[in-house]
Every structure is written in structure tokens, then in C-alpha cells.
Amino acid sequence: MKKKENAGVDKKSSDLSVNTQNAAGQLLTSNQGVPVNDDQNSLKTGERGGTLLEDFLLREKITHFDHERIPERVVHARGAAAHGYFQVYESMAKYTKAHFLQDPSLQTPVFVRFSTVAGSRGSTDLARDVRGFSVKFYTEQGVYDLVGNNMPVFFIQDAIKFPDLIHAVKPEPHNEIPQAASAHDTFWDFISLMPESMHMIMWLMSDRAIPRSYRMMEGFGVHTFRFINAEGKSHFVKFHWKPLLGVHSVCWDEAQKISGKDPDFHRRDLWEAIENGAYPEWELGVQIVADEDEFKFEFDLLDPTKLIPEEIVPVQRIGKMVLNRNPDNFFAETEQVAFHPGNVVSGIDFTNDPLLQGRLFSYTDTQLIRLGGPNFHEIPINRSIAPVHNNQRDGYMRQTINQGRASYHPNSLGGGCPFQAKTIEGGFRSYTERIDSKTIRGRSKSFLDHFSQATLFYESQSEAEKQHLTDALRFELGKVETVEIRQRMIGLLSQINKELAQNVADALGLTVPEALMYPINHSVPANEDPQDYQPIYIKQSIEKSEALSMNHTSKNSIRTRQIAFLLADGFEMEPLETMKKALEKEGAMIKIIAPKLGEITSSKGEKIKVDQSLLTSASVLFDALFVCSGKECVETLVNEPDAIGFIEEAYKHYKPIATESNGVDLLKNSSRIKKELVKETHGLIGLVVDKSPQEFISAIAQHRFWEREKKDKHLG
Ligand code: HDE
Questions:
Q1: How would residue 525 be classed by pLDDT, with cut points 50, 70 and 90?
Q2: Which of 155, 472, 629, 690 is the S-S candidate for 661 at Cβ 3.0 to 4.6 Å?
Q3: pLDDT of 368-417, one tens digit each?
Q4: Can you give the pLDDT at residue 10?
Q5: Catalytic residue check, 340
Q6: Where do runs of H (alpha helix) occur along 561-692?
């Protein structure tokens, strides 16, 4: 294929701009281009008369409005997206003939959509949920979609169970409650009968399910795919996205409060980071397994409830993705984008993972109802930048005006065009896998180990992470009303880790069953003996995997962290400025919070603008807190319950808090903080008093001081 100079970003933008519209300086018109001279009044029979059916402008406007909504996605309805590009570091030609993975000088445009799964389009961003991580690469060889999640495994092994899983997690059908939450009976009823979901449940109950930001999440392709090189040789591949800002989460109490204070928290965070030029970045990672090694693992590579530990097959970082442009229009781009794991380019292919195989059907099918017909690939955001020529014609909303008479192949009237591409010309040729077997409606017995990787995940967590996971289970199962469901879950948890099961059972007033207790395994094929399909436990070759814990994530940057500066009239300007400058130099974002909006005056009469008042702001929206000093400032804030609440909440959520001089008097108003200040161990738990900005910067980079949690009642 002929190499194009700097294909990509510009090409795509101009492609889209054919359809972008800017009304600046333009006349208001009807959809037929007729200039409108009164858009304020409908046409009437006299001043107090009836409205005329003749009023085509009124009818056109109202009819269009009546049809403005389209069905929301049946899953992943709530999301936010951005444009950017991907660039490979070094040619991967050894493994794949995909052109965009071969040329390090090529920037391939991408459009990336992040989402929650269960909630409706208007639901909160901070639900405990899996996050979707969909990437559309507009490559020169056609569109490639990597439609992944922020967790590397899935709940079920076979696509035929997907509608059941989703029915169970969505609001219950009789009363449509609860919105965007898995903490209810139908979800846990289903899960408690599906032992294969246990590994995913560990991820879902971990803090990975409540990310700090879309920009601080990993992404995973989940299934095993294939890379195919120019010689037709196949390698298995698992895809990863590694965020350069590290992987960080909020805590559950905070997540619930953010849901009230700012349900758009993740959407806003992504938007603002890009507007501020702090472009989110991820590295694309691959785990490559030679075809010959397919059976060398203690799990089946085709089983989507399993991951390949990074200690066994390291992740090679092969390129970088940068998101640098917000969409112009949410509906046209983020809502109308149609991803499909079946959109692959030459050099990337599928495996027989039965979940993936089902997805290959589902995604086109769902767009037909959601986007209203077969021409959704012509919507600007879905268009390929590679030329599209075929004999598909007509259908709702056809945009292309195909010329000529021949819409079939072979033809002679059209000169035989369009031609089939030879493999050497980039023509897609499916991997020729040898298949020799009977048709069965069943499941491979190599998929029967449902617990060992759940244990691996649990054992790999830090103490704080284990505690959060336990608390999440206590919360979720505590909301379940049917005791039998809770009991079945304790039985399943006991197969993962006895202590975990015991700790959850304690909070639920239950006991851990003595004998091994599995629920009936509902995945047993109909004509088989359930005894042959009892879950088995295969000891994994490693007991812990560092990569599974967020504790080991990079903690060397405070870029884009949101820092609240709490102050009132009479604050000391100099220490504020020193701290602000130092933090901003490291890329943090500062917001001035005061009792009321407007301007605020320092002890020496200097004025600064207030960004948010205590009424409109909340501690949960920030990563760290700087409490300003100054006699009058501190006296005012001591008598301001919202200010004290702000500080206490930041402390409760394990965030770094800094102050200097008499700002410490304000901190002492919280009895818990006072205790630490007296003990003088505060440096260790993120209370930075009378220290240089550098100390505060290091504390913010740590993200959270979970050590404080040990003092919580759970841990005694
Ligand atoms: Fe999806 N999924 N899914 N899914 N999925 C959809 O397609 C489906 C699965 C994922 O930002 C739907 O366009 C089936 C795994 C993401 O627009 C639908 C099965 C993974 C998104 C669908 C799965 C995903 C979707 C709904 C089991 C991680 C959002 C709207 C066989 C690897 C895409 C749409 C976006 C969306 C079906 C399982 C990720 C109905 C049948 C596993 C990120 O087609």
C-alpha cells in the first residue's frame, strides 16, 4: 500500500468539517433554506385567533423537536468522548501487518468513548460499575475498533448469557429501581448462581469500579485476539491501555457524595483537562503469545473470565494515544458513534472466545435499531478515512450518491469495478484456523476453574484495597433483601478466600458454610451430568501479581490534580502565592474556595477572585486541600460550619491537607485531626504543616493516605 505523508489527523478533521456548521453571521432559515423573518410567533387567524395548519415553519420546527431523541444504548448509555491520535513507537511488522502499527511517523486519528455500563444516559458518572473504554482508530486501511473495558475480564463466558446479566443488573422491571447501581436483589441473585462471575466480581467490588478520572483508568481488550503478520503467521494478543497519570480511584463514601454534588464529574474532568491543554495520554500495551504456546497456561486463553498475569507474559508498551480535542457536538459525535469489535483491519483477527463471537453479531444489530438503519457508517463520526466502494445500496438516510448502473459484482458494465483487493494490496483475509469437530451446544471443561484467579486478584491487593473490597461486598449484599441470595454469595466467597467470606458474613449476620457449597452451576449444558461440570480450582503458578493492585501504580506526578485553597477575608497572600505557584508549576489546578463568591481581600488589602463558594463547592470534588493562614481569615472560618465540614471531609477521604502558621488552628477544630497533630505523626498521614511546597507536592502525588483508615472502626 502506498505510504501517505502524515495521513490522519488533518485528513479526518477536514473529512468531518464537510458536515460541521457554524452559524456565525448567518441568517436563520428553515430546513429547506428559506430565510425566516419571525421565529417568535406562530401564524394565527388574527391576534387572538387559532393557529393555522398552514404554518410550515411551526410544523417543521416542532416535528423535528418531537423526533430529537434516539434510543439510548442498551448498555453503556452514559458516556463521554474525545478526539486524539495514536502513534506506534516501533514497527510491529514482526507480528502484524496492520499498517498503523508499523509506521512510527504515522499519527492515526482516534475517537475514544468512556462509559458506565448499567445506568441510563442521564445517570451519575460515579456509580460502582465497569467502565467502557472504546477506541475507534481511523486507519488508512479502514476503521479498527478496540471496544474494551477498564477491567481485564468479564462476568460470563458465553454470549448467550449477556441479556440475562444485563437484565439482572439494570433497574428491576417492576419498579425501575435502582438507577445505575448493582446493589439490589436481581443482580446478586444472578451472580450468586453464576460461579464463573467471581473473578469479575472481585474487580467490580474493588476501587477500580470507582475511578478518580477516565484519564486515570487502565483499559483492556479483554478477549484474546490475534495478530497476523505478512507471512500469515498468527500470534495471540491481549490489549492493554496504560494511563500515564497512573491508575487512581476515589473511595466509596466519596463516590456516593460526588454523585449528588456533581453527577457529571468524570465527563467534566475529561472535558476540562482537554480544554486546559492537559491532554490525557495512554500507552498501548500488548501481551503476545506464540500460537504454539496456546496450551501452556493453567487457564484457557479463550476464556474471557481469565487474564494472563503480567509476571507470566509481560506487557510490551508499543505506542501512545493522546486525546487532544473535545467533540464539537455531543449528539453528533459521542451519541452517534457506533463501535463494533468486528471492525478490524488486515493484521488483526479474532479467536474463538465464545463471548467475543457473540459480540461480533451484537454490535451491528444494535446500531440498526439505535441509529435507525444500515447506513450508520456514513454518519461523519463513523466514516472511514480510507475510501469506501462497494455494491451496498439504498436504505434509510443514504448519504452517498453512487454513480453508474452497476451495483453488483461481477459486472462488465462498470468495468468490473470495484475490484477485489489482493492480500498484498491490503485485502482482508481471515485467519485460516483448522477446525475439525462436531457441533455442540456446550462449554469447554477448560473453562471450569472459576475461583483461582479471583483468589489471585484478592491476594494481590494491599491491605487497604482488601478492606475496600470487603466493605463494598458488605454494602452491596447488605442492600440485598433476600437472605438466601446473601447466603449463596457467602458460599461463593468462601471459595475465593475464607477470611474475606468471614468478614462479609459478619457484617450480614450470617455464617460461612462449613462444607464446600456451590450453587447449582447454571452453565451446565442441558444434556450433561452437573457433576461433570462442578467448578474446579486450579492452583495458579503465581500467588500474587503486583500489576493487579493500584498500590503499585505510578505516584510521581500531580499533573491535573484539583487542589482546593480554603480562605476568607484577611488571608496571608504571600504563602498562598508561593504554594499556588509551586503547585501550578507541577501541573496541578487550583481553585479558590471562600464563604461567598466575588472578590476576597488579603491582610494587606490585595484582592483575588473566588472560584467557588462553600455553598457551590464540596471537598469531594478535590484531590487535596490547602488551608490558608491569616488572623481574620482563620477567625472567620472557625465560625463557618461549612468550612470545618470541608476540612473534615477531606481528612475522612484520606486526602493530603496542608497549612502553615495559624492555619493549623483551623485544623485543630476537627477532633480527629487535632489528635494527629498532637502526636506529631501527621507527616506520615498526609497532614503537611509548616513544610515546604515540595512536601505537599509529594503528598499529593501519593493520592491518598489510607493509613488513616486503620483508625476506622472496621479495623479497630
Ligand atoms: Fe458490549 N455492547 N457486549 N461489551 N460494549 C455494547 O453496543 C455486547 C462486552 C462494550 O462506547 C452495545 O453500541 C454483548 C465485553 C463497550 O458506544 C451492544 C456482549 C466488553 C460498549 C453490546 C458484550 C464490552 C459496549 C450497546 C457479550 C469489554 C460501549 C451499544 C457477548 C471487552 C461502546 C452498542 C460505546 C456496547 C453487546 C460484552 C464493551 C448491545 C452481546 C466483554 C465499551 O451491542
A1: confident
A2: 629
A3: 999 999 999 999 999 999 999 999 999 999 999 999 999 999 999 999 99
A4: 44
A5: no
A6: 573-585, 631-638, 641-652, 663-667, 671-679
Query: Which pLDDT does position 5 carry in this prediction?
Result: 39
| Residues 448-484 as b or e (16 or more Cβ within 10 Å = b) | bbbbbbbbbbbbbbeebbbbbbbbbbbebbeebeeee
CA 228 – CA 291 distance, rounded (Å):
11
Fold of the domain spanning 450-551:
Hemocyanin, N-terminal domain (1.20.1370)
* Unique residue bearing C-alpha cell 480562605: 567
What integer is the mean pLDDT of 576-587? 98
pLDDT digits (tens, 9 = 90+) for 227-242: 999 999 999 999 999 9
With the CA atoms of 529, 531, 532 and 535 taken in that order, what torsion angle do they form, in degrees rounded to the nearest 10? 130
Ligand 1 interacting residues, C-beta cut-off 6 A: 73-76, 79, 113, 115, 132, 134, 147-149, 154, 159, 162, 222, 337-339, 355, 358-359, 362-363, 366
Question: Which pLDDT belongs to residue 3?
Answer: 37
Instruction: Dump the DSSP string for 156-224.
Output: -SSGGGHHHHHHHHSSBTTTTB-TT---SHHHHHHHHT-GGGHHHHHHHHSGGGSBS-GGG--EE--S-
Kindly give the distance from the C-alpha atom of residue 341 to the centroid of ligand 1, in angstroms, as a whole number.
Answer: 8
Question: What phi and psi, each to the nearest 5 degrees, are found at residue 8?
Answer: 115, -120
Any residues with CB less than 8 A from the CB of 280 and at least 6 apart, and which?
82, 214, 215, 243, 245, 270, 273, 274, 322, 323
| pLDDT recorded at residue 174 | 98
Note the pLDDT of residue 252: 98
Q: Higher confidence at residue 519 or residue 109?
A: 109
**pLDDT for res 7:** 38
In angstroms, the Cα distances linking 502 to 102, 112, 193, 483, 538 are 52, 41, 20, 16, 23
3-state secondary structure of 626: strand
Homologous superfamily of 43-382 in CATH? Catalase core domain (2.40.180.10)
Residue in the structure block whose three cell numbers are 484539583? 562
Q: Please give the Cα distance from 219 to 227 (Å, whole number).
A: 19
**Whether 99 contacts 424, CB under 8 Å:** no
Is 149 among the residues known to form the active site? yes
Tens of pLDDT, residue by residue over 134-171, are 999 999 999 999 999 999 999 999 999 999 999 999 99
Would you state the cell numbers that stand for residue 370, as one nine-digit string? Answer: 439505535
Cell reading at 433: 484456523
- Which residues, in sequence order, are CB contacts of 324 under 8 Å at separation 6+? 82, 83, 84, 85, 274, 279
CATH ID of 555-715, from 3.40.50.880, 3.40.50.170, 3.40.50.1370, 3.40.50.2300: 3.40.50.880
**Residue 715, pLDDT score:** 40
> Of these residues, 6, 19, 64, 76, which one is catalytic?
76
- Reference 466, options 714, 196, 102, 187; nearest CA is 714
Q: Where are the domains of the chain?
A: 43-382, 450-551, 555-715
C-alpha cell of residue 312: 507470566
Residue that the C-alpha cell 501487518 belongs to: 97
Domains 43-382 and 450-551 share a fold: no
What is the C-alpha separation between 406 and 646, in angstroms, rounded?
A: 70
Q: How far, in Å, from the CA of 714 to the mean position of ligand 1?
A: 37
